[in-house]
Amino acid sequence: xxxxxxxxxxxxxxxxxxxxxxxxxxxxxxxxxxxxxxxxxxxxxxxxxxxxxxxxxxxxxxxxxxxxxxxxxxxxxxxxxxxxxxxxxxxxxxxxxxxxxxxxxxxxxxxxxxxxxxxxxxxxxxxxxxxxxxxxxxxxxxxxxxxxxxxxxxxxxxxxxxxxxxxxxxxxxxxxxxxxxxxxxxxxxxxxxxxxxxxxxxxxxxxxxxxxxxxxxxxxxxxxxxxxxxxxxxxxxxxxxxxxxxxxxxxxxxxxxxxxxxxxxxxxxxxxxxxxxxxxxxxxxxxxxxxxxxxxxxxxxxxxxxxxxxxxxxxxxxxxxxxxxxxxxxxxxxxxxxxxxxxxxxxxxxxxxxxxxxxxxxxxxxxxxxxxxxxxxxxxxxxxxxxxxxxxxxxxxxxxxxxxxxxxxxxxxxxxxxxxxxxxxxxxxxxxxxxxxxxxxxxxxxxxxx
Length: 450
Hints:
Low-confidence stretches: 1-13, 306-312
Mean pLDDT: 88
C-alpha cells in the first residue's frame, strides 16, 4: 500500500500481522481532504473553515443602549434621588433600527430601547426602573407599549438616581472591531460561529464540505429492526451504529440496508453507492469463512488493470491486525475516483472499535481537521481483579471514565459481541501489545468516546 493515494492489491500483507498504527498510517496516507467549496451559512454548519475571516464592520457598529430607559446627559442627573428627582423633558423615542435620532440637549431625555443607537448629545442611559417612567408616580417597573401609550415619548420623566458617563452604553466595536480576525482557518463552524459570520454580514463562507460516508452491513442473517425474526436471524445493529458514529464524527452518512451474502449483489450495490460516497464503510464478511462475501467481492475487483470495473480505483487489501477486537480489516480504494473503502469485521463491538480506530480518523482527515484523533487520558484502573490481554495484541476494553476521580472501570467482558456493555461505556481502555495483565490501581491509557 503506497502513500500516493492508491492501494496496491496483493496477498503478501495477509501473511503478517500488522500493528494498529501501521494500518492507521496507511489509511491516513491514502485519504485526502476534500476540495473546498463556497457554501451558504446554514449549509456550512459542521464544516471546517479554510480561510481566516476578517471583520468588515465593527460590532456593534454604533454606540447603543444595553437597557430600556432614557438617554440623558450626565450633568442633568447628577445628585438625583427619589426625594429630589431630576425632572427632564422627554423629546421623543429612540428605537432599534430607527434612522434619525433626536438630539438630547440640557434638561432633556430621549426614551431609548435596548439595542437602539445612543442619540447625539446623550452621554449615558438610565434604566426605566431608575425613573417614574413618565407617569409622575414611584419607580417604574417597565415601559408601556408605544402603540398603547404614544404619549410616553413626550412629557416629563423623573430620574431617581445619577448615572456615570457611558453607563449602560455598549461601545462601538466593543465586540469586534473592523479589521479584526473573526475566525481562523481550521475552525469547525457551529451555531456560535455561524452567528458571528451572520453578524458581520457574511452570507457565504469557504469550507471543506462534510464528507459523505456510505455504510453497509452484510449478512443473510440480518433483519431490519421492527421486522419479525425467523430462526437463525438477528437484527442489523452495525449499520445503525456506524452511520450514527459517522454523523457524530461530522460526516453526512447514508445507511444502506443489510446486503445478503452474495458477492455479485454486494459488488453491484457498491457500484451503485459510489456516486454519493467520499468514503465507503462495510461491516461483516472480512474474515476467513466460506461466506465472507466482502472479501470475495472486493477480491474480484482488485485488478488495477480493470479499466471498466471497480478495480480501476486501485484495489483492496485484507489484513490481520495485532488488535482485539478487530483483527480482520480491509482497506483500499475503488472506482474511477479512487474512493476509499474500509471493510470492518462484523461482530458489533469489533466493528465499533474499528470505526473509532480507523474510520473516524479518516472522516476527520477528509474534513481537513489537523487533529483527527480522539482525546486520550491516563486513568487509574479500578477493578475487582486483574485484566488479562493476549500477548502481541493491543486490546481495547469498554470502560467508564470518571474524570474527577481520575479512574476508569471496565464495563462487561471482552467478548466482541457484547453490545449492551458498549452502550454503557464512555471510554476504551487500551492494553498495550506487550502487556498480558493489568493489576487494579495501575495507570492505563483510555480513549474518551464522549
